[in-house]
Amino acid sequence: MNIKIIFLAVLLFMISANDWSNSFAAPPEADKPAAAEIKPGSFEFYMKSGLDLFSKEKYNESIAEYEKALKLRPNDVDALYNTGLAFQYKKENARALELYLKAVAAEPRHYASKLNAGIALDDMGRADEALLYLQQAAALEPGRFEAYYNLSNIYLAQKKYAETIDVCKRGLSAHPVHDRLHNNLGNAYFNTGNAAEAIKCALTAAAINPKNETAFFNLATYYESVKDVKSALENYNKALEINPAHYDASLNLAIMEAEAGKLAIAEARLIKIRTAKPSDARAYYNLGIIYDMKGDKALAVKEFRAAVERDPSYAAELDPYIQKLSGGR
């Protein structure tokens, strides 16, 4: 009755706001205006001011400056993009998307706008539309990894593992040391029954970034699937060294401890994570199993009922067992 989860490392990647001037063809050195020559009230003035404020995470003030620039040049790609990015950092994805699409209308080959439009759409729950923009971004810049990485996140969530493997390989061709792409590739391999390749990917991710808790957690899960108990325990503990609050690593470690007969240790670990995350049914469920193994029917029933209360999908399995343990009460 063990419940194990492969943690999907879904981290959205957005290109940071570049210096707006980098988008223009560089004039001869002698013709470049000095910073002091930027006139207050000019397009360049508002763009520089907006970028300075953005870099200080003052997004509302940054947007106000960019909007002044847009009044002077309503179809400027860089102004549209930077304004959209500021809205996206504020989690206002609908407004960000509107600006990115205007940027794309002005410059159909604008990679960053298509990339971030895809991310905004995915955040809005519109994954199929997100895929279209991310695919277009990848086609525009096949030598960059960002679009492939975000495509892999969506495909993985959709359980499209062949597609995940394909875009991860493309992304890694562009950026071989991207640890999260290795995470996603390993996850896809594991879900297609290839634990050996999954282990290689997780080992690579962990070597690239020794602070990547997901790599160690996934590695532990992969080792557990091939019955390498020692390596599984070692890597669950490594994940917890990096992040002591990693719920799933603690949960899976407690299950393994219980299976090894270390009931007191497993019980203490589950009580700790139950306290930290009282809405999650899995700790209650597994505590119920431990109390049942210890012969404490009353506590087992209490934990099983708490699990069903938090997740009714357990009812079909646990209700008959609760009835049996409680003598029909």
Automatic annotation (TrEMBL):
<keyword id="KW-0677">Repeat</keyword>
<keyword id="KW-0802">TPR repeat</keyword>
<feature type="signal peptide">
    <location>
        <begin position="1"/>
        <end position="25"/>
    </location>
</feature>
<dbReference type="Pfam" id="PF13432">
    <property type="entry name" value="TPR_16"/>
</dbReference>
<dbReference type="Pfam" id="PF13424">
    <property type="entry name" value="TPR_12"/>
</dbReference>
<feature type="repeat" description="TPR">
    <location>
        <begin position="281"/>
        <end position="314"/>
    </location>
</feature>
<feature type="repeat" description="TPR">
    <location>
        <begin position="43"/>
        <end position="76"/>
    </location>
</feature>
<protein>
    <submittedName>
        <fullName>Uncharacterized protein</fullName>
    </submittedName>
</protein>
<feature type="repeat" description="TPR">
    <location>
        <begin position="213"/>
        <end position="246"/>
    </location>
</feature>
<dbReference type="InterPro" id="IPR006597">
    <property type="entry name" value="Sel1-like"/>
</dbReference>
<keyword id="KW-0732">Signal</keyword>
<feature type="repeat" description="TPR">
    <location>
        <begin position="77"/>
        <end position="110"/>
    </location>
</feature>
<feature type="repeat" description="TPR">
    <location>
        <begin position="179"/>
        <end position="212"/>
    </location>
</feature>
<dbReference type="Pfam" id="PF13414">
    <property type="entry name" value="TPR_11"/>
</dbReference>
<dbReference type="InterPro" id="IPR011990">
    <property type="entry name" value="TPR-like_helical_dom_sf"/>
</dbReference>
<dbReference type="InterPro" id="IPR019734">
    <property type="entry name" value="TPR_rpt"/>
</dbReference>
<feature type="repeat" description="TPR">
    <location>
        <begin position="145"/>
        <end position="178"/>
    </location>
</feature>
<dbReference type="InterPro" id="IPR051685">
    <property type="entry name" value="Ycf3/AcsC/BcsC/TPR_MFPF"/>
</dbReference>
